[in-house]
Every structure is written in structure tokens, then in C-alpha cells.
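can u do me a favor
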């Protein structure tokens, strides 16, 4: 897996563009592998003095010595198995894994496939699949805001007695069960099963006994509360309360702070210091950075600053400007062939222009 050689040794090599190798060879000699901030590793390339291998090649009748600066990252076992030149890169950070899984910056030049024999019985996979914990999806809705289905005949009955949702059932559970009052909404499936027919939670009858409470058993089931978009403000704040308040008894009870019923869920969040600063916006953007494209993160940020009025929008943007500029950096790296290029003020400026365009279309507001 030797690149080229190109450069001064062979100016006519196909990788040469404008007198430079478009693949950035020869690379620098490095005593140890270093991982850059962006997850791109600089692989160990030992020099001859540091016991690095060298080999001799003949190029147009001349013998030249090739050292580790010319080696393309590879895996001997893959090269041997597939009898092909396969460039293998080391993925060791969330950033680089996100980059590969989502393949967000590149076109579709990568395919993933699996080969499965007919009538195959892959016991390993089946075993693993069977071992994933149960995940329950939990509803979040305002009081009387849940979706109901009805026909003409049952419309009145549905309106007066709407079927329980996981949320209203959890309130009911907390009213009748001491142990449930120690739990967060999302913790319920660990100790209770959801009965679809009766739309209620029931204590687990088996599992690991909970020492402090008689007749309570724990499992590895997980509850996940549906995400609520910040523009859906009150519901968003209700969700924020649900992930912080243990054992809520009702919609009214969850917004009662120190004996006082708040008018809105937002007010309750404020009183509980859940909205003291921009922390939750910062966390929202940090979560988003791990799984969303730069375009999506910019859109989220534009929505936050143009509709939610965070305390310090500038600081919020500074914290997340790199994840909002990632695609611009990547595009310019490709255009210049310089993979070590870092963020520049011009790139950040382009990102701000894109964010401003979004703010203009969302709220007709300029960045200033
Ligand atoms: Zn080259």
C-alpha cells in the first residue's frame, strides 16, 4: 500500500494537481499516532532512524528509497482476504463515527452490504437481538392534548373519558403507589409493565427484588420520552419537568412548586431553576451536535435565537459554531486539498450568513 510515488520523484503522477499531491503525500514522519481534534488521526510513521522500514522501488530506471511517509493506511488481513488495495482508517471518536455512519458531507460513494446465506440461522445475532432491553416510548402531551380516535357513535364518550395515555396512567400510578412516587416518568418501565389492554402500569412480578421496598422487582427495561420541539413551548417545558420531577400526581401537581400552583409549565421550570440560564439550550445543541447535520444544527440554533430568546445568544453560538460550520470546513478542505485546514473567520462568517437567512425566514428577524 504505497502511494505514488509522486511529487518531485514523479511530477506526472495522476494524483498531482497544480504541482501538489491531491492526496497530501508524502505525509509527515511521526513517532506516535496522534488524534486531532476533528477525529482525523495522524498515524505513526517511523523514520528510518527510529527503526522504520524502508524499501527500494525502481522508477523510470532509477532506484529510489521509499519510507513510511508514502504508506497508505491499510489492514493486512483485509488486503489479504479481498486481494485488493483497501484504504482503512481508524475511527476512534464520536465525530469520526458520526461522519462515517451518516456519510453526511459526501455524496453516495459508499455502500454497506451484508451477505446472508439462504435459510441461514444466525444464532449469534438472534441471541443478541433477544437480549436488547425492552424500550417503552412515553407520551408527552398537555392536559386533554392527547390524540384520540373516535367514530360518530363514541365521540361524546371519548371526549368525557379519554383513554389513558402512558402519561396520565403514570399520574394515576403515582397517586396510588408509594414506590412510584420515588420515580421519574422514564424510570417507570424498570419496575412496572405497561398493559396495553387496560392502559395502566402494573408492578413487575419478577426480576431483581428492590431491597428497600417489599414486592417491587426491577428489570432492565428502559423508558424513553418522546422529544418535543422547543417551538411547542408549554409541552417542551412539561417534558422538562417530567425529566426532573419525581412522582408527579397530575398536570396541576407537576407545576406546583413550594405549594404554589404555577400558571404555566414554564413558570414552574423557572421556579425550579431549570431555566436559570441557557444551560438547557446549550445541552440541546450539544445533543444535536452528536447526531445531526450542520444544516440541522444551524436550523435548531436559528429557531432557538429567533423564537426562544436565550439570555446570551452570542455565547451560545460561540459554543457551537464549530458544529454549525463543519460542512463548510469540509467543503473547503476538499476544494483546497488541504486536509489539515482549520476553521477560519471566513468560514464562521459564511455560517453566520446561513444562520441569518434562516432567522429571516423563521421570524423575519436579522441577526443583530
Ligand atoms: Zn500523490
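np, heres the sequence
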Amino acid at each position: 500500500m504505497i502511494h505514488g510515488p509522486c511529487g518531485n520523484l514523479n511530477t506526472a503522477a495522476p494524483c498531482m494537481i497544480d504541482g501538489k499531491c491531491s492526496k497530501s503525500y508524502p505525509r509527515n514522519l511521526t513517532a506516535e499516532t496522534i488524534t486531532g481534534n476533528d477525529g482525523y488521526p495522524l498515524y505513526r510513521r517511523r523514520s528510518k532512524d527510529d527503526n522504520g522500514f524502508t524499501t527500494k522501488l525502481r522508477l523510470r530506471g532509477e532506484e529510489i528509497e521509499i519510507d513510511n511517509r508514502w504508506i497508505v493506511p491499510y489492514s493486512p488481513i483485509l488486503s489479504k482476504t479481498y486481494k485488493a488495495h483497501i484504504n482503512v482508517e481508524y475511527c476512534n471518536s464520536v465525530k469520526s463515527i458520526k461522519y462515517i455512519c451518516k456519510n453526511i458531507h459526501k455524496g453516495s460513494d459508499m455502500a454497506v452490504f451484508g451477505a446472508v446465506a439462504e435459510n441461514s440461522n444466525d444464532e449469534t445475532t438472534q441471541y443478541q437481538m433477544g437480549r436488547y432491553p425492552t424500550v417503552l416510548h412515553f407520551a408527552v402531551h398537555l392536559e386533554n392534548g392527547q390524540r384520540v380516535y373516535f367514530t360518530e357513535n363514541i365521540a361524546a364518550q371519548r371526549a368525557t373519558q379519554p383513554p389513558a395515555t402512558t402519561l396520565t396512567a403514570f399520574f394515576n400510578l403515582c397517586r396510588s403507589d408509594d414506590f412510584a412516587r420515588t420515580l421519574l416518568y422514564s424510570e417507570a418501565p424498570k419496575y412496572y409493565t405497561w398493559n396495553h389492554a387496560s392502559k395502566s402500569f402494573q408492578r413487575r412480578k419478577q426480576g431483581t427484588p428492590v431491597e428497600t421496598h417489599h414486592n417491587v422487582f426491577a428489570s432492565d427495561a428502559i423508558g424513553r420520552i418522546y422529544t418535543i420541539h422547543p417551538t411547542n413551548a408549554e409541552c417542551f417545558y412539561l417534558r422538562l419537568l417530567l425529566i426532573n420531577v419525581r412522582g408527579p400526581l397530575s398536570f396541576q401537581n407537576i407545576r406546583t412548586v413550594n405549594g404554589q400552583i404555577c400558571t404555566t409549565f414554564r413558570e414552574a421550570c423557572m421556579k425550579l431553576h431549570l431555566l436559570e440560564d441557557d444551560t438547557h439550550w446549550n445541552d440541546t445543541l450539544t445533543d444535536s451536535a452528536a447526531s445531526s447535520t450542520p444544516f440541522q444544527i444551524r436550523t435548531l440554533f436559528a429557531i432557538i435565537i429567533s423564537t426562544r430568546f436565550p439570555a446570551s445568544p452570542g455565547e451560545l453560538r460561540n459554543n457551537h459554531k464549530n458544529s454549525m460550520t463543519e460542512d463548510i470546513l469540509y467543503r473547503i478542505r476538499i476544494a483546497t486539498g488541504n486536509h489539515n485546514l482549520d476553521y477560519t473567520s471566513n468560514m464562521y462568517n459564511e455560517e453566520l450568513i446561513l444562520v441569518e437567512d434562516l432567522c429571516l425566514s423563521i421570524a423575519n428577524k436579522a441577526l443583530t
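The radius of gyration is 29 Å. hope that helps!!
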